[in-house]
Every structure is written in C-alpha cells, then in structure tokens.
Specification:
The structure holds two protein chains of two kinds. Chain A is mostly helical. In chain A, 79% of the residues lie in helices and 0% in strands. The longest helix of chain A is centred in the last third of the chain and has 31 residues, at 56-86. The chains are: A mainly alpha, B mainly alpha.
Chain lengths: 99, 181
C-alpha cells in the first residue's frame, strides 16, 4: 500500500473535521470534530513511521493522545460550566464575553 | 497495485471510516454523532494494525473508545441535549462558506501530497508501507516503544504525566461548582 493513499485518506478525514467545526453549532459536536482532526494527524504520523521504519512517529502519536485526553477533560468541563451558566451549548448563542 | 489482503482491508476501513465521519458531522443528534465517531476511531485502529503499530492501535482503542468517548457520551447525557433545532439564522450562508473553505483546504493539501508523493516515480511513491517485512514488524513492538519512552523520551514522558495531572485538577475545579456571575 503506497504511502500516498494513507496521506490522502488522512487529509480527507482532516477536511471532514474542519467541515464539522465550521458547520455545526453544538459545542460538543465541534469538540468531537476537533478530536477527528487530531486522529487524522495521528494516522499521518503512523503512516510515516511505517514508511520510514522509524519509531519516533509512533511515540509522537502517544504524546498527541496524552494531550488529547487532557484537552477533552478540561474542554468538557468548560462546556458543562458554560451550560450551567447559559443553559445552552450552541455556539451562536454564546457570543458575549461579558454579561 | 496488486490486490492483496492489505489492499482489501485498507479499502474496507477507509470506506467505513469516511462514511462514519461524514455521518458524524451531518447527524443532528449528538448521541449518534458520538457513536459514529467511535466507529471512525475503530477504523483508524484498524489502519494502525495494518501499519504494524499494534501498541498504538491498542492504546488508541483504550484511550479513545474506552475513555474519551465515554466522557463525551456522559456529558451529552448529563446535559440532556436535544436534537439540533432545524431552524436557524444564516444557515445557507454558513454552509456555503464552510463548503468553500473546506474545498480550498482540500485542494491545498491535495497539491502538497500530489507534488511530493505521487508525481515522483522514484521509491518515495513506489515503496509500500506496512508490509509484513520482519524488521518493520519489530520496529513498532511494545518492547521498543517502552524502551524508547523510558530512555530517550523520559523527560517528555514525565511532563506528559504532569500535564494529565493538571488536566484532572482543572476539570474537577471547572465542573465542580456553579460559576457565580
């Protein structure tokens, strides 16, 4: 399987993630789209690691997963806090920095 | 490109993963979005196995499907979200802008990938990845990754554990009390 196929697939997954962030208004779905983009980049890392017969790509994927896990914990806590305050998770209704 | 098991599995995972990702961003119910994202994540784990990275595949399933998506579903159910309302202002304008922007991005990435990996007829494009060569199977083994993590990457590893601790404390503090205005 040539490397290019994995790169194209990963690019399409990343594009779907970007489309999700731009199209959706639900903050939780936007967050899931960000996760999808992180995973698309992870696929690129692993494909290059296999292509170059080098371990560093896989180790970087490990650290990306750590950051993603921390990000999800804090981000979902933020969404819960915003929901308690504003009773909504739709981003076009959360458009004030102060209230 | 010869038809072999790797190609068949790649096509299968690609179709499943892309379809589930599309359904994830298009479905109106966030619970279904989360479940479709889990399907995509399993397809990605399949790619990792194809690419001789069994450790990454296992960690991916455990962390994403096991922990992160459970957290997502838990929050969705905690907030008792309904389906997105159908009516919204400026829906068509936003869809148009989003489609155009994503198309531009895809063209950019396509040009980059095409320039570097498809036009060069040398070994860069011709070399297959993830075939069952003995050395490439050994590269991604758990033993090697563990050795690297605890020798070369020991400092990043410790910093990662600190980051997770900060994440836990931050999440607890943020979600614990009602924010006062």
């Amino acid at each position: 399987m040539p490397l290019g196929y994995y790169l194209v697939l990963s690019a399409i997954l990343f594009g779907i993630g970007v489309a999700g962030v731009l199209l959706r208004r639900n903050a939780i779905v936007i967050f899931m789209s960000i996760e999808l983009m992180l995973n698309a980049v992870n696929l690129t890392f692993v494909a290059f690691a296999a292509h170059l017969k080098n371990l560093e790509g896989q180790i970087f994927v490990f650290f990306v997963m750590v950051v993603a896990a921390a990000e999800v914990a804090v981000g979902l806590a933020l969404i819960v806090a915003i929901f308690r305050l504003k009773e909504t998770v739709f981003v076009d209704e959360i458009n004030l920095m102060k209230w | 490109m010869a038809i072999n098991l790797h190609t068949i599995l790649f096509s299968l995972f690609a179709v499943v993963g892309l379809l589930a990702a599309l359904l994830m961003i298009l479905h109106r119910n966030p619970v279904y979005s989360a479940i479709f994202l889990i399907v995509t994540l399993f397809a990605l784990a399949g790619f990792y196995v194809l690419l001789n990275a069994p450790f990454v595949a296992a960690v991916h399933i455990i962390v994403y499907a096991g922990a992160i998506m459970v957290l997502f579903l838990f929050v969705i159910m905690l907030l008792n979200l309904k389906r997105d309302p159908l009516r919204e202002r400026g829906r068509m304008a936003r869809r148009t802008i989003a489609t155009v922007l994503v198309l531009i991005l895809m063209v950019e990435i396509g040009v980059l990938i095409g320039a570097s990996f498809f036009t060069t007829s040398s070994e860069a494009a011709g070399a297959a990845v993830g075939l069952a060569a003995a050395d490439s199977a050994a590269v991604g083994s758990t033993t090697n990754i563990g050795r690297q993590l605890f020798t070369t990457y020991l400092l990043p590893f410790e910093i990662a554990s600190l980051l997770l601790l900060v994440g836990i404390v931050g999440a607890v503090i943020l979600a614990k009390r009602k924010l006062t205005t």
